[in-house]
Design brief:
- 2 copies of one chain form a homodimer.
- By secondary structure, chain A is an alpha/beta fold.
- The first copy, chain A, is about 45% helix and about 20% strand.
- In chain A, strands 4-3-5-6 form a 4-stranded parallel sheet, sandwiched between helices. A 3-stranded mixed sheet of chain A has the order 1-2-9, covered by helices on one side. A two-stranded antiparallel ribbon of chain A has the order 7-8.
- In chain A, helix 3 crosses helix 4, helix 11 crosses helix 14 and helix 13 packs across helix 14.
- Chain A is globular and about 60 Å long.
Chain lengths: ~375, ~375
Amino acid sequence: MSFERSLPISFEGNKIYDIVYSDNFDGLDTYFKSYNAENARKLCIVSDSKVASLYMDAILDIAKKSFGKVVSYVFPEGEESKNLDTVKNLYIKLIEEHFDRKDLLLALGGGVTGDMCGYTAATYLRGINFIQVPTSLLADVDSSIGGKTGVDFEQYKNMVGAFHMPRLVYINLSTLKTLDTRQFYSGMGEVIKSALIKDKDFYNEIKAGIKGIQELSDESLLDTIYKCNIVKKHVVEEDPHETKGERALLNYGHTLGHALEKYMNFSFLHGECVSIGCIMAAYISRDKGLLTDTEVSDIDVLISDHFNLPSIPADVNIDEIVSFTHNDKKADGQTIKFILLDGIGNAIIRTDVSDSDMKNAFLEYMNKH
Amino acid sequence: MSFERSLPISFEGNKIYDIVYSDNFDGLDTYFKSYNAENARKLCIVSDSKVASLYMDAILDIAKKSFGKVVSYVFPEGEESKNLDTVKNLYIKLIEEHFDRKDLLLALGGGVTGDMCGYTAATYLRGINFIQVPTSLLADVDSSIGGKTGVDFEQYKNMVGAFHMPRLVYINLSTLKTLDTRQFYSGMGEVIKSALIKDKDFYNEIKAGIKGIQELSDESLLDTIYKCNIVKKHVVEEDPHETKGERALLNYGHTLGHALEKYMNFSFLHGECVSIGCIMAAYISRDKGLLTDTEVSDIDVLISDHFNLPSIPADVNIDEIVSFTHNDKKADGQTIKFILLDGIGNAIIRTDVSDSDMKNAFLEYMNKH
């Protein structure tokens, strides 16, 4: 396969950036040349130790053809690096290399890299340009799209951040071949969530094509990621700064997912927790009369039979997990805005989900899995 | 005098916030009530130790009538507090007090407080609302208007920051009566700069009314600050994120001013350096054939005869000061965009100001003062 497809993302009717799909990095050359057409701009490629060892040289080679100066900043892989210290060290690097307001950052990696690099770009000199080159499924379908950037602070995830749009998202699907299976399956949590909240046809296509996805067929991956991006495109274009209700719909599966993730001290992956949260939220949707037993069972089977969900220890403290939902930063004062499904493909916001509703869903999940 | 006047500031045609002028804090009550009409929001008043001792109690009393919870965060006064550590401690305070996305920060103080508090508001939970209650002339006419926020990083001023608009700027002119004279005169540097770049009539009014300003007459202060704000309003509305040329005009006097400020290790105040920079930039404007000798002399006398400018030590290294202009973050690559006056009231951007032009201006200033 050799292809190039793109999807424009707009803000208030004006195109801000493209998501470009390819099976290699060569297309970056065109973008670099156009970015640097006028002046001798500088580029800093930001990546973690693991991704840098795989792809840094390839990107450096392409970038050096266009930029007057190309530098790299590599930090230790893992969520532990997503903090203000990593950001500060990147500021220092940029200062030392005399980066100014028209120079460019490139985030090469998964969600940690994109969020941290994007936040640095948002705040260095009150904001410089950056582009996203995601290398994980989670980053392809979620974290690289929509302009949310940030880092963890103390024990809180994404507590410090900013909305800052990238100038380009360049998805090289071939990077998914080097992603470990657990990370890939974790990304599928967000994929299925995207279909569940907005697009029943897409949901049915995932079901029908699950084998191709698991085998990382190029066509399946392109189709799946593209459709996820279309769902996210519509939501973020409607509500770019999460000030209206629309963007909250993306949090389907996340209220209980985040609480579980935190309770498990991040030993489960984000997408794994989202997958489990999606199943539990389907149970609650059924309890509220919004989904049929058949639909709930269908969702449960699709997620749990194909993506190796981690086992929740039998002795977890469900009360404590549910209590964590009240500290989630998406909580608005005391009221939790819980996302449910009013039929597959139609997410809605509800404020009538009680602690007891959540506990029941948790218990049902524990009994069934 | 008892008055209330206001000036709306817009972004892309939509009003974002008002600058409200008063001679007391009572008008905050109306704003607090309207902000908190729907829900039990929280307010955090952020101030330095000096300003807090003067005004914190008064604001607390008014705020407690409207907000369910009012807390305060006081940090040591001075530019040394304008850093990421102060921001981090404020994050921790907000987390401990369970501040969420709809709660409010209030910056009570001068430029350090407004910039630091505004940056925290820009980045806590990817952005929460804040209001500015400036208590210095510099903050009234410059730092509180226009949405620039930030902190110093390592030895670099405002190296880390974000554009984040306040929801209200509430100017209580009576706070200027407690400002020390040196700080007040420093603020006048930005006042005269505002007139010089955009409004010759305003410049002539300052000259004619200089006595009233020095005596802090209420009417003179209101008129002067209001007119400065109108100049800044037009510039920031035209170029909110400093991406076009227009906003650069506000940097008149700042290229050499910043360099001097840095060379003097911040022992001179910002506005003092801007005043000196305005005089030097007038010399350069004359050397480029843009101002007459009479105009330059007029500017020089107005600034240096009335506002106690600090003496530059005779042994300063002018080469080094000029070299600092190349590290200024407003430098775009290698080219310095220098703001000159093409007549009083008409600032323009020039890229043909050489190091030698700057050195000559510096020498002329040293000889004359």
